[in-house]
Amino acid sequence: MRPTGFQSQAALVLSADQSRLRFNPDYELVQLEELSTEQREPLEALQQDPTFYGILRSRFATGPSPKSVSRDTADLLFALKEPQQLPDRVVHDADAMLAVTQLVCDGILQVAGESGWLCGPAACHFDTTTPQEPPGVLAALSLRSLKHAAALRTGDTAELSGHLYRYNSLPLTPEWLRRLPDNTAVQEYLQIQSGAGVRWELDRAWTRVPPAAEQGAWMAWSSRTIAMPVDTTTYKLYLSPLPSHLRDAFRIWLAAITAGGAFHCKIGNDVRGLLRPDKMVAYFGDRAALEEAVQRIASELSGCPSQGVPFTSELDSGALMSWGSDPPSEEHVPIWLRRQSWRQWICNRLGAALAVAKHHPCDSMPAWRFALTRLQLEGVELANWVLHSPDGQPNTVTEVTAV
Questions:
Q1: When comparing pLDDT for 96 and 189, which is higher?
Q2: Which of 141, 207, 317, 401 is deepest in the core (most CB within 10 A)?
Q3: Residue 274 maps to which CATH number?
Q4: How far is CA 314 from the centre of its chain?
Q5: Are residues 50 and 116 in the same domain?
Q6: In this structure, is residue 338 part of a structural domain?
Q7: Do 180 and 292 share a structural domain?
Q8: 178 and 303 in one domain?
Q9: Taking Cα atoms as reference points, which of 263, 259, 274, 262 lies closest to residue 192?
């Protein structure tokens, strides 16, 4: 396996001589009890967390999406309602400066500059060296996805994240609707209906997960012999053939992941799911098992036309196969954000960074490039689209305890 991807040459640094900060007056802190019943309902679980303070939201309808914040973060923001210098103990603490820099990049804190109060791209110093072209197929695809979202007129975080997540899906044509009108037709197309050839392999080695558990989006199975790992990193193998080659690819993929030791697998439940790039996913407890499956698949699917999954780590097979690892569960966020897939996690952060750059444009820093650099502050290695941080945990605004 070879790590590939776009490596940004921009370095985001909040300098010590630019460390007079204030809480951006465009934002407000709101405690849970100040919200309406409807607004409070999705956040009820956070009330059990003693570190939870409330919501940080824009005062403007077109502003970035609200964020949940801890009490330590709220204390910092309240303290910085009056502009002040950062103390030396913060300036010389790498973790604290990272946390503060994230808040400045996100537009929540502002720094004093010659032209006024700055945040987002304009508040940071960048190495403007021209970045190298992405060396891999999926890296180039990911960069196109980001540039496409940056060119959209919307500045809404959710819309931008959605565009990124859906990028490289194939159009839902009348022909595909005719061929695969429902799940029964999908099962027949894959030859996994009762009595079909591939069904025997499924029944022998896998147990079907109830559709309700996958919320209707997937057909999923759990291994009869390989247990799901507990409290350890798991690895996802994506197979992304063009839908016209899906039947043979599914049969080969299923045999390979069964022999390789996957503990869970899934495929799109309907025609829309099969037209998305990440249409087939297998889960492994270790990289060695994943690599064994990759070798089996590569030997039989050489030359198979591929679609390609943006924001995943490329393997030697070009765009046909790639891998990723879901980030750890986050406790200090609303319940619907606690367990996100790798691509959801990536796209949500890139979408938020694009929204900041669109609300605080900087002529010398394109929005797409700022988003990549902001993502690096979360511990993402852009060379191979994997998360890397000293403790293995993603850095989030809700966990800032810097000052």
A1: 189
A2: 141
A3: 3.30.2430.10
A4: 16
A5: yes
A6: no
A7: yes
A8: yes
A9: 274
Partners of 94 in the β-ladder? none
Q: What is the domain range of residue 216?
A: 174-307
Determine, yes or no, domain membership for 334.
Answer: no
| Geometric angle at alpha carbon 395, from 394 and 398, rounded to 5° | 115
For residue 266 the two structure tokens come to 């899934």
Instruction: Answer yes or no: are the C-beta atoms of 3 and 384 closer than 8 Å.
Output: yes
Query: 4: buried, middle or exposed (CB in 10 Å: 19+, 13-18, 0-12)?
Result: buried
What is the percent of the chain where pLDDT is above 90?
51
Does residue 329 fall inside a structural domain? Answer: no
pLDDT of 317 > 80? The answer is no
The region that residue 373 occupies, defined by phi over 0 for left and psi between -120 and 50 for alpha, beta otherwise, is: alpha
Name the average pLDDT for the chain.
83
Q: Are residues 197 and 293 in the same domain?
A: yes
pLDDT per residue as tens digits for the range 372-386: 989 988 888 887 888
Residue 221 token pair: 């199975």
pTM of this structure: 0.86
Nearest to 107 by CA among 75, 150, 60, 149: 60
pLDDT score of 3 more than 60: no
* Strand arrangement, sheet containing 218-223: 206-208, 218-223, 264-268, 280-284, 235-239, 318-324, 313-315
User: Which residue, 307, 322, 350, sits at the end of a domain?
Assistant: 307
List the structure tokens of 99: 């946390």
Residue count of the chain: 403
Model confidence at 17: pLDDT above 70: no
Query: In the sheet that 52-58 helps form, which strands lie side by side, from edge to edge?
Result: 27-31, 52-58, 67-70
Instruction: Give the confidence band of 393 by pLDDT, cuts at 50, 70, 90.
Output: very low
Residue 76 sits in the same domain as residue 186: no
Q: Is 283 part of a structural domain of the chain?
A: yes
